[in-house]
């Protein structure tokens, strides 16, 4: 039934796309704009930040993110996901046709698009000599099956098993086949792929994958040496998903340290907007990020940019795309080390500022809009996506 439903939608989206494309094509100027169209699913403010990183790009957000209140060039502010889906089933192909008539470069975040049929969408763009970049950011491309095999090989635990216990579909054959299809389409049509290859193990056969850069506004960096002149330490944990981030491990470590007599304020943020998170980070000293992944995530960059010592499992010896110089930017903490490493910082308070200083400098060097833009331009030029 679901397949029939999407087939019906795909059938009427095609004529809308062509009508829109040729209508705007008639009235456009002879030259195409070479800047990027960026969309369409907002994940951790990636569309917004990438739009700020790449000058003159156009941002498209066809979903509503409950944690952010950001502005885009094209955006539907609809709360009902069903009504939003219905509107997008018409608006998506119309907008794709309009943008394809005047823009040559399309940058996709997540595995969704303007149409319900990504295969046809990419085929349409490539038939008109458009450049397509796929930027995968997590479960859009990650195969739980391949990830479990990697955990077994490395003899480590991982969040996949816990999520699978809660949601059996996550480990099902149908879900795995969807990841294969997403990878197949990207391999066939994408001119370039951004993907964290270890953390987001996938069926992509294209080995020329580059880790995507995190992006943060330099004006939002907040270095505050004075907040460390206190004995009242604040430890912060803000899980977007408690299983994935290792929240049970964090709570166990916090409880044990409290029973041992350690004094600190523990703040746990769940289901709050990003503005509240940033406000709390400004006064936090230690941030417990995530402990089952090999990359940092946007929250780690926000924490380092706000001068916090970060504990997380991100490890440049495993995820090769992490920039050089990360060794002391945070305290590498695997899931079995949460208690030990937090205790280490509490016992050695000078190390809290040490990691906060190093993390701040590392984030500023690598993840401002300017730094991320330089990295993106460099790899796209080296791979012939944009001209040298």
How is this structure best described in words?
The chain folds into two domains: 2-215 and 371-382, no CATH class; 218-367, Glycogen Phosphorylase B (Rossmann fold, 3-Layer(aba) Sandwich). It is α/β, with parallel strands linked by helices and 388 residues long. It is globular and about 70 Å long. 46% of the residues lie in helices and 12% in strands. The protein starts with a helix and ends in a 6-residue tail after the last helix. The protein has helices spanning 2-27, 46-53, 81-100, 118-127, 144-154, 159-166, 173-189, 242-245, 247-259, 274-283, 298-305, 338-347, 349-367, 369-382, and strands at 33-40, 58-61, 74-75, 103-109, 131-135, 192-194, 209-210, 234-237, 265-268, 286-288, 309-312, 331-332. It contains 14 helices and twelve strands. Helix 1 runs parallel beside helix 3, helix 12 (338-347) crosses helix 13 and helix 13 crosses helix 14 (369-382). The strands form two sheets. Strands 3-2-1-4-5-6-7 form a seven-stranded parallel β-sheet, with helices on both faces. Strands 9-8-10-11-12 form a five-stranded parallel β-sheet, sandwiched between helices.
């Amino acid at each position: 039934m679901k397949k029939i439903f999407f087939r019906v939608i795909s059938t009427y989206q095609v004529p809308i796309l062509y009508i829109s494309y040729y209508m705007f094509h008639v009235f456009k100027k002879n030259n195409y704009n070479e800047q990027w169209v960026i969309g369409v699913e907002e994940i951790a403010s990636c569309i917004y930040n990438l739009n700020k990183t790449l000058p003159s790009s156009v941002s498209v957000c066809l979903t509503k993110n409950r944690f952010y209140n950001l502005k885009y060039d094209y955006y539907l502010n609809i709360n009902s996901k069903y009504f939003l889906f219905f509107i997008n089933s018409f608006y998506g192909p119309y907008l794709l046709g309009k943008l394809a008539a005047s823009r040559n470069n399309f940058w996709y975040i997540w595995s969704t698009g303007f149409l319900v049929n990504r295969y046809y969408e990419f085929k349409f763009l490539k038939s008109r000599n458009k450049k397509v970049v796929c930027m995968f950011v997590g479960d859009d491309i990650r195969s739980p099956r391949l990830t479990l095999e990697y955990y077994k090989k490395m003899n480590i635990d991982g969040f996949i098993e816990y999520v699978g216990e809660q949601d059996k579909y996550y480990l099902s054959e149908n879900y795995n086949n969807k990841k294969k299809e997403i990878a197949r389409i990207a391999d066939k049509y994408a001119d370039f792929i951004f993907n964290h290859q270890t953390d987001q193990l996938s069926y992509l056969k294209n080995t020329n994958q580059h880790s995507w850069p995190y992006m943060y506004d330099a004006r939002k960096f907040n270095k505050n040496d004075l907040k460390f002149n206190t004995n009242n330490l604040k430890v912060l944990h803000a899980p977007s998903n408690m299983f994935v981030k290792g929240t049970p491990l964090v709570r166990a470590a916090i409880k044990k340290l409290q029973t041992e007599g350690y004094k600190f304020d523990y703040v746990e943020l769940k289901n709050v907007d990003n503005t509240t998170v940033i406000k709390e980070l400004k006064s936090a000293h230690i941030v417990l990020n995530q402990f089952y992944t090999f990359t940092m995530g946007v929250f780690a960059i926000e924490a380092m940019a706000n001068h916090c010592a970060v504990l997380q499992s991100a490890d440049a010896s495993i995820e090769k795309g992490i920039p050089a110089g990360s060794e002391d930017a945070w305290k590498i903490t695997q899931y079995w080390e949460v208690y030990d490493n937090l205790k280490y910082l509490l016992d050695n308070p000078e190390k809290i500022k040490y990691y906060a200083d190093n993390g701040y400098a590392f984030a500023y060097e690598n993840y401002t809009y300017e730094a991320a833009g330089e990295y993106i331009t460099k790899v796209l030029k080296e791979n012939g996506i944009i001209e040298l």
